[in-house]
């Protein structure tokens, strides 16, 4: 069998990000985007507005905006747990 050739030149994206010192920031942003998208989708499925989400979380609309903004990484774990509970989910995290 013939070995499949890479379609790109050089190292992987992860290797390049590590070399440039951006790997951790990139992964954190990617995770925040994933979480924000999941919460936003759950809100839409349940027809929960941002205003209502804030009321149910006992927080401000500004905090909900931060939660749903994939570029704002400054959200506490407590806020993530509250948001997950409001949409009938639980927030899990782990070290691997």
What is the H/E order? HHHHH
Determine the strand fraction and express it as a percent band.
Answer: under 5%
> Class by helix and strand content?
mainly alpha
Alpha plus pi helix count: 5
CATH fold-level name: 434 Repressor (Amino-terminal Domain)
User: How many β-strand runs?
Assistant: 0
Write down the overall mean pLDDT: 85
Identify the CATH class. Mainly Alpha
Poorly predicted segments: none
Number of domains: 1
Structure description:
This protein is mainly alpha-helical and 96 residues long. It has one domain (15-86): 434 Repressor (Amino-terminal Domain) (Orthogonal Bundle). It contains 5 helices and no strands. The protein has helices at 13-20, 23-45, 50-57, 61-68, 77-86. Helix 3 (50-57) packs across helix 4. 6% of the residues are buried.
Describe the secondary structure blueprint for this structure.
Elements: H1 13-20, H2 23-45, H3 50-57, H4 61-68, H5 77-86
Salient structural properties:
96 residues, mainly alpha, 434 Repressor (Amino-terminal Domain), 5 helices, 59% helix
What does this entry show, briefly?
The chain has 96 residues and is mainly α. The protein is built from five helices and no strands. It has one domain (15-86): Orthogonal Bundle (434 Repressor (Amino-terminal Domain)).
